[in-house]
């Protein structure tokens, strides 16, 4: 359910200006709130660089209109616990899970979701759950090690 | 702010005039006004970015009754706003409609499934739509609402007309989809072939649902449906018929597969040639039946392989 003109982002409530209701959440987060961890890769839901949590479930901010998620809880990398981000960064360093860094926020969100017990059927392979995040430097194997150590 | 370097790439999605009514009546007013129905948006928004339209959309997520979703032994009823993610997470759904559950898990990614609705995949009517063959073997019916209170049920086979074209007339809303759950001695499955494992459209796909006799071996009834090998997902009636009355053997499986490959109507495109698709159908039909056989072992009287 989403009514009204309020959006809760990383715990703070914002009033969405009327002209933003029919525009993308991705642009609102980057333009208005300057939450630039949310990256635009493909803009059509394939690459996962814009992954944010909407009520604790990962979704692509490039395919959400602000009006559609009004009233719901949005979390971006900036809103993840500091200790989680630190641990993720350390593990990326340890396993070499970071190259150009563009896909990293998306993978960070998915790792946070997975380490919080995120699953679809309860017995999904990691490959399936991370399929929506594309890394063009191709450090998939390293990132899988990072996620495996986190979860 | 003026001197700050712009960190934003322009969005190619035009600004949408978005309506968010909370009742069906409100939705119909907006549709009459020329607004396109927006549910999950995973197909509609990329389309709008590429084509610059539609600019006017009515989001139906605020209409409570469209979120309804019930699974009982006989029939599953899924409202227009139920996302694919919600469905996969439901163990009763996975048990009642294994083919549909298989197919949903091939759609997009975790993120997309959390946004995309099942009915959205139906209404997009892509020839390669993953859920379509699976829904066809589960005898799906699409609920069309013409105006508040005016409802009709159309079989999915009739609903799909051509690539991207459905029976929905202007001013109508697809409000839900219902389909058969598995009954005693029944099993279903869905398989597809893609170039890459995820985030890709099927080159060919096959779903089947088989009913076994009490002996657990002989096929008493069968439905087979094919995806991405025709203008719409196709029901392979003759192929299914060839299985009925026989136990599953290498021979009956390959006869069924050959008939399916003969009766499909693939085209050649950048994904594959028509000939390759026919070969794939053969392989996939045998695969799907094999998968059903595996899953149906529990029906056998001595519990063989359990």
Characterise the protein shown here.
Chain A has 151 residues and is α+β, with helices and mostly antiparallel strands. Chain A folds into 2 domains: 6-78, Ubiquitin-like (UB roll); 80-150, Orthogonal Bundle (DNA polymerase, domain 1), CATH 1.10.150. In chain A, 35% of the residues lie in helices and 13% in strands. The radius of gyration of chain A is 15 Å and the shape is globular. Chain B has 306 residues and is an alpha+beta fold. In chain B, the strands form 4 sheets. Chain B has a 5-stranded antiparallel beta sheet. A 4-stranded antiparallel beta sheet of chain B has the order 11-12-13-14. Chain B is globular, with a radius of gyration of 21 Å. The termini of chain B are far apart. Classes of the chains: A alpha+beta (151), B alpha+beta (306).
Give a quick precis of the structure.
The complex is a heterodimer of chains A (151) and B (306). By secondary structure, chain A is α+β, with helices and mostly antiparallel strands.
Whole-number mean pLDDT of chain B: 92
Q: DSSP strand (E) fraction of chain A?
A: 5-15%
What are the secondary-structure elements of chain A, in order, as H or E? EEHEEHEHHHH
Number of strands of chain A: 5
* Count of domains of chain B: 3
Q: CATH superfamily assignment of the largest domain in chain A?
A: Beta-grasp domain
CATH class of the largest domain in chain B: Alpha Beta
User: Count of DSSP E strands of chain B?
Assistant: 14
Oligomer: heterodimer
What is the name of the CATH class of the largest domain in chain A? Alpha Beta
Number of domains of chain A: 2
Global structural class of chain B: alpha+beta
